[in-house]
Fold this sequence. Notes:
The structure holds three protein chains of three kinds. By secondary structure, chain B is mostly helical. Chain B has helices spanning 2-32, 39-55, 60-88, 98-124, 151-173, 175-185, 187-192, 197-219, 231-244, 249-269, 275-289; strands at 139-142, 145-150. Chain B has eleven helices and two strands. Chain B is globular and about 60 Å long. By secondary structure, chain C is of the alpha/beta class. In chain C, 40% of the residues lie in helices and 26% in strands. In chain C, the strands form two sheets. Chain C has a six-stranded mixed beta sheet, with helices on both faces. In chain C, a hairpin with a 2-residue loop joins strand 1 and strand 2 (14-24). The longest helix of chain C has 18 residues, at 169-186. The model of chain C has no long low-confidence stretch (mean pLDDT 90). Chains A and B meet through helix 5, helix 12 and helix 14 of A and helix 3, helix 4, helix 9 and helix 11 of B.
Amino acid sequence: MPNHKRTGIRNLLITAVFAIIVIVLGAILDPYNQGQLAVVSMLFIGVLSVTLLTGTSGQISLGQGALMAVGGYASALTILNLGWSMWCALAMAIIVSAMAGLLLGFAAARLTGPYLAGTTLVLALALPSLAIRFESVLGGDVGLSVDFGNPPSWLISAVGEIGYEQWQLYATLPLTCLALLATANILSSRTGRIWRAVRDHESAASLMGINVSNNKIITFVVSSGFAGLSGALYGLRGIVGPSVYPISLSLLLLTGAILGGLRSIAGALIGSALVVFLPDFIEWATKPLALSEQIGNYLPGLIGAVLLLLTVVLNPAGIASALHRHK
Amino acid sequence: MDTALTTLFLGTTRGAVFALAAMGLVLVWRGAGIVNFAQMGQAMFTTYIASSLIISGHGYWLAFLIALIAGALLGALVDLAIMRPLTRRSHTGILASDSMRATVPVIASLGILGILQSLAGMFWAAEERGFPTPVSDVAVKAFGKTAPFTNFDLFIIIVVALTLVATTLFFTKTGMGLAMRATALNPEVARLSGIRIGRVRTLSWAISGVASSLAGLLITPSANLSPNTLDLILIVGFTAAVVGGLNSLPGSVVGGFILGLLIAIINVYDAPDDVFLALLVFLLVVLILKPSGLFGSKKVRNA
Amino acid sequence: MLEIRNLIASYGRVLAIRDISFTAAAGKITTVIGANGAGKSTLLRVISGLEPATSGSITWQGHSLLNKTPEAIVRLGVAHVPEGHAVIASLTVAENIEMGALFRRRTHKQDVRVAISEMYALFPRLEERRNQLAGTLSGGERQMLAISRALVSRPSLLLLDEPSLGLAPLVVEQIIATIKQLCISTGLSVLLVEQNANTALGVADHGVLLSLGSVVADQPAQLMRADSALRSAYLGY
């Protein structure tokens, strides 16, 4: 069997295994953790956008959270103003955020390192103010209300009663699997190789005939589509508004990607699980210490930042690479 | 006419502070090749230290001085503890990639920012704090008319002007200033001349720390002190530095004043909500038309 | 004197110096010649501390230089003028020279002033242009400036890397003559790396011929110059 067919089948298998694990977990966890797992699945897609953009293509963006917001608003407006179904809205979210990525790509393809980081940071801060500017359409500070709706009747007849958090998880799952499969295929394809060439040695890549700026733009488009999908799902938990997509969301995605491992899908998954469950874990672990509310509020942030710093200084390739080495 | 004058003065005093912030960024960029996103986090932290000293009864000027010293120490600490080990790592694995090596210090500085903000929150966020001004905060009255600025505004402009003069003299007339310029322009030739570039770089970080501490002390009275107060200054400082040219100290100062005026105009004649949008547009325009900034040169930094 | 024993060093992933040993006598000009890629520049960069050595020993007047930092090696009296007129273009002529003397300012304040004026006496064209930016100088003037930057620190060993590169023959002659004069009057030792073997052997006391990282010949310059077989095999003339 030709090599690419083998990898294609392998990627399908990995996705299937992932789906099965999530379904099983979804069935046995309590509602709170079902909700958390749903958030992991949503953020996983967002972290994958960082894996593609920064890990594979080497471009740093501090504005993925803003692209999540674009997707969130696109899907919310589609549901509320156009009356379309959730699934159509999600498709719209991907398209609109991909287009935003195209614009961003045009500006960003010429920028490197700190210039790119700073510009995307300003973008991440500027975008929420658009929501306030166009309050009538975008709902201002309060935002727009949307949700996942009710689980379809055929599903209930198949598996019985489904809790709200469980439905969130099962509705998100097929899209997460799609994102997972797409990423796996991109990484193992010729496109992935081109992006890695651009990341590692831009001048050499362009000498080899690769159109560096076109590829950078494509990377932005693809990663923005991922981020938009993630943001749309994230917003379907209840609200699409500036408070849902703060600048710290961009940093959260970046932290997850770096901690877990910037260059692999496994890293993205580890990172997503980490950023979602770490605050819960810290709260549980520090309960006997009876910390003051002040310290308790800031402790997860402190630990996250310390982990980020330690990772970047000691093991920049993240947890996934350390596991890989011990195989 | 009155509004125009007020806007002009508001823009100038804010611009002076932005110029300081931009200078701090440029100092570290030139001296160490890193854009320090944690800079205003450092400033916020040292301002909190000053505020705590004032609250426990010490005088403003003592707190001011200690904040500046703390800024220098904090800057030097960041370099010695984090940035130096970071840049010394061998170029293997993920660091074999050019773009990764440029990205890693950015992420490290974000981590430092997060740590400083969390620590500040833990130590001090319980109560909202203001920050006093050393001189009167009311409009200056002269010749029977009320001027569109206060004594404190004058104070800011004088302090920043003095800082600029001191910095220029330092870089052009002293041996250490020459060593810093040489290290920034060509580290290899500097080393061959016997300059200890490691120490020189740490000094750049320390001086940058003082500049950003000063910026924090000057701007905070006009807002409440919280772990996130100075985030905006970071963005404006960065934009000012880029607009003026990341390689140029005088450029960053000019950039600071330009942005000060721009933001004042937007605040007065438009809506404060539009500030970030205006910054974004301005930044993109400059990056598209003249990527090296108004005063920047296209020269590539020697590694 | 400079003693190199069993030196091995890489340049990137290439083994550039494969077990080199030779001695450069004090107060003399020793020239290291050979074709491109022979390892000559790498040798100087390893001696001055810019590149690490894998193994071997480098000793100057009894002090080991092996894998010390460039800053420390300069303070031991070894000054390196890298190839390509290494001056800092956005600094003035005066600042470039002053830069070379910075590390001595605290300990030898008076002598630094004397040393700087000696450089201007040595290269009067530099004095005329002392407040000009180094980037506006001609190639020959920049080379003079680079050499002044090294000499102002009063080194006992000068490492010169291809001073003739890109310069007119007349200018090269002038510079080399100045160096030779310095050797005679001050006892300065010079390790001269040169592409132009003819010129180098004409002024040097001793020659070391490198080929692909190894020493092929190590003899008095006059003998090397006369050996036509050696010349045609390794130097192409």
